[in-house]
Input
Amino acid sequence: MSLFSAQKSPEVLIESWSPVCDIQAFAEESQSCVYFYLWINPGKENPQVRGCWVCNTRPAPEALDKAAMDRGEAPMMPAGQCRHDLGGIRLRREELSIVWLEEGDAAALLEGDRILALIPGWAGQGGCHGYARYAAGTGSLAWELAQAEAALAPRVARSRAYWERMAGEYWPELQEKGLGAMEAFFGPHEKYYAIDGGQFPAKALVTGRRAGRRYAFTLGVSALCQPAVEQFWQDEASQHRRIELGFAAGEDLPEEAWMGMLNWLSAQSGLPWRYLSWLGHGHTIPCNRLPGFEAVLFVDPRELAGVEGPELPPVMGEPVSLLWAVPLTLEEYYFARTAESSTALLSRCRGRAEELPVFTGEGKFLLG
Output
């Protein structure tokens, strides 16, 4: 597969697929240089390609060859932005490897233990397409790795260890502790549904009853780290990137509606990795599984005093956010999305905060 047409067909040196996202990573050598790519949603209607220069294999030009780019050729890094021998270098193919970062939407290309290039989850923003060991400054093909390596190298090492753990026996401990927290909340569980379809990672949906109410929680979603969280929370990303989803209703909710919400909750458990996004407190997404309701608002008990929920244990040393799915009427959804905000909507909650997550068939907010 070639992203650029050149006189010599580009050669793929190494490739890898994300463990959790529909992304292919590969390093490709053309007749003049090597690039590292992330191909998002390959073969789909909305594919994206993120590319980062790695090195030149021929003498560096004095300026960026825009004519070559117009011909669809992978451009070489100009001499003034190149930190390796200006005559070009060759990579040791047998020493190349690809490490996916913990979120699964970003990856690093390594030669031995050294990072050659890294494409972060936010690549393409602010003019940065990735970091490269042999890049100098903040050019249009890659930014220099030197200034960022002190932060990125430990992250790559941590990511390698994370995926090794995920390939091992992480599930029994997470399952036992998560289920224990749920049963401490509602007593012995009623139903346990596997919702992973036999695919990695393991996930389940657990239901139970307490005081005339029915509860459902996902189990296992928190093993994964949500993409894009660091773009909002920066240094606090580790406090918000692991989640489980929950839904509660009175026992009078018809079984068809209850099962509809369980199926919907199951489907949303993979949303962050499917759309390279994240879910958190105050977020809204469409949901039409309940008559008269058009969306849900996610509410985190850690962020709203009085809201109850299972005390979910940390996963791999990081806290887990329980996100209650609170159904919204069309008017409430419009208010949260356009007229005001989720914060303003939450300030108009009718009744006690502890009743907010429990669906009763009526809207939860006073908008008049």
